[in-house]
Amino acid sequence: MNRTSWKLLYIFLSAAIVFVVANIIFIGVRSWTGSWERMKLDAAMLVIAIVLIRSVLAWVFKEKNNGWKAYCLFLLLSPILIEFSFGVASMFLPPDAFHDFNLNGI
How much is the pTM? Predict the structure, then answer.
């Protein structure tokens, strides 16, 4: 693991923390709003995957820098950033987009 100056243990620990926190915060139910929460969870998993892939590439290419600190901070702030970005997106959606639709008449 001394191949790079990146502290991969801290990145993996941050990813595990965000995985647990995101699963607690963004767990959804089976309705339209549950789908919205599920999309937040999918976004959190995508952020974790991108950062983990980036850290593995830093190890492969033997990078010698302190970029891992920014990625740890980004990982730890990602649930807040995802909640904020979905909140902004919901402001531009029609108000009836969050209601559960009655599909009994179909």
Answer: 0.79
